Each structure stands twice: as structure tokens, then as C-alpha cells.
Amino acid sequence: MKTSIALSVLSAALMASPAYAADSEASRSSLQIRYRLELLSTLGGNATSGNSINDRGWVAGQSSFEGEQVTHAVLWRGNARTDLGTLGGAGTNSAVLWPVKNIRGIVTGIAQTDEPDPLNEIWSCGFFFPEATATGKRCMGFKWQNGIMTRLPPFAGGTHSFATGTNNWGQTVGWAENGVHDPECTAPQVLQFRAAMWGPGKHQLRELPPLPGDGVSSATAINDRGQVVGISGACSNAVGGLSAKSNVLWENGQPQDIGDFGGIAWNTPMAINQRGDVVGFANRSAEVGTSFRPRAFLWTKGQPIKRLDLLPAHDAEQLGRGQALGINEWRQIVGQSCNSAGGDCRAVIWQNGVPSDLNLLISPGNTALLTAANDIDNLGRITGVASVAGKTVAFVATPFIAGH
């Protein structure tokens, strides 16, 4: 806990500076907060992403291999890069996809096994792996610590599981199939799934129920107070869409609908801080149906869900897309802002609700285009994805006050 306290003190010092304190446009223009950009090493392929950064500066995500149709979960610790491997050996995939957040050295994600999928489902994992190797094998949530990857089992009768985040108490959340053949599933998905909490004990597995009337649920993040966020809806194809009918917060195991913008699909919390602030994305209205038309949001207890503005160039179209993907204790929020077609996407940081293009805050000499900011720690360090010479590369952006 000494590490956590030291980081909190450093964070407080930075946040107390004029650079983070002002609200007015004139003040913001004089803050001169800039970021030093570091592009992270790859496993040799053309697709790498940083999806999680904790207060120790550990970045986790995924990277492809040169000439191979596989991707592996990766952990970057300073100059050291660790391939976390898979649960199935050569030709199988793994990834860390959500902000994990704990400082205990636990990393969580998804990994294929070498066991055939008896129902030949795509499952949630299949949408995040290279198409040629995405299906045909069981995919399990995993917990990695001290070089050992441990599978997180599904509920009784299920084939697959999926892990997102782990808190400092060792509780891991995600979702897992059970043995129920759900008629609301869209082929090739067959089995129902529910939000899951593994641990802190070795064999502990707990279900977090959906909202009344819904068939499935999924958990996407957890904080140290045991508050869990996720989605509730219909089985569908086990990834977003109608399975994300409602944004949900579980407290003491009970689900609460925290609201949306009227959309019937793609309502998804992505992160929760220790205060209980929740960020994510939600479809802009009911009129868009099941099409992916998200806007970024912030929810704070006792307040209605709040839409976060896009960058002006995207907001002007009225049809732009936005996602809030990470939040720290200082309510700095990071994510992505895109035009209506999704062809022009920029990494964004929201401070006091105001969006800034992270590309414009990087020190001179940068040639990368930062397309998504996926997570932020309590020191303000950001990880995400950049485009460089036709490749997608993970990055870390470290803040500093210009002139200091």
C-alpha cells in the first residue's frame, strides 16, 4: 500500500497545480499541459494496442506477430515486454481488452485453449481475434500473476468465459456461459451468459443477475469498494448490440439501471473509479435501433447520465461517434471521438467535461496519429492506440507542465 499512497501524493501535487485547476477557456489555454509520447514495442506484427494502465505504470493489451494470424496478450513494464501467452499453445490467441486497474500484479483478459468448442459458437472472444483463428476453440477468461496464467471457469454447463478487470482485493469480473439454451441467442451463439465474479478465493464464482425481464448480463469493471458495472439485455450474438440494452451498476450484488440516451442497444459502461464514477458509451437515440451510433457518457451517483461532447470537428456533424473508455480518481476521462462514418477518429481527454484532441497536446516531433485513448492512471498517464506508417501501435503518453 506504500506504493499506492506515494502515487496518490504525487497525483495530488500534479492535480493541484494551475494546469488542472482552472475552468475558464482563457485559463485552459494558458495551462500548457503537454505529453511525452512513447510508442511501445510489438511482437513483430502490424496490430498492437494498449488497453490498460495501472498506477505502477504497467500497460497491458495485445499484439500480433509478423506473418501470423494470431494475437497475444502483452504486458509492458518500463522497457520490459512480456508475452503472456495463451491457454492453448501455438496458433491460439489471447488479449487484455479492458482497464484492469489493480496494483497487485494481476492481469486479466481472455485466452483460447486447445479444446474444441462443442457448439462452434463465435462467443464474445471471437470478435477480438484475427478472423482466421478466432473460432473453433474454447475461450476462457484468465488471471495472470507472477508468470502464471490461470483459467477462469464458466458456470456449470457453459463452454466459454470472458474476464475484464480485477480489483486490489483479488476479485475479477466478466461474464460466463451457463447451460441454458436461450431462444433469444442469435446463431451461432447458443448458450445464455451472466455477469460473473471470480474470487477472491481460488474456487469462488458468483453470478451477478441481469435486470428484471432480461436474460443475460455482463460485467465490465470493478472498483475496490466492490461496485461492479456492466450491461443487461438479451442474448443476441454475445457482443454488445441488444445484449447491451441497459447500463448497469451492481452494489451488494443487486443491479441498478443507471440510465442511457434512449437507445435500445450498445449501452456499455467501460470503467469505474473508486468514487463510483462510471464512464462508457451509449447509443445516441432509439431511432438508430441496433446500429452502432455511440456517444460518450459520465454517470455520477445521484445525477442523471451526462453526455460528453465530441471534438468540435465531429460534433458539428451532429452524427459523430464518441466513447469514454477510462477514468481516474481526478475525473480525468479518456476515450475516442470520431466523425459520423468513423473514418476520422482521435484520442481524446476530457477535463471538466471539455474534450481535447490528445494529438494537439503531444510534444513537437510526433508523427503518429493517436486514434484512441483507452485508459488513464492516477498520475495522468494515458495508454491507447496510434497509427504509424500503416500500423496500429500501442502508446503511453506521460503528462508534464511545459516550462517546468
From TrEMBL:
Keywords, comma-separated and alphabetical: Signal
The name of this protein is DUF3466 family protein
* Signal peptide start and end residues: 1-21
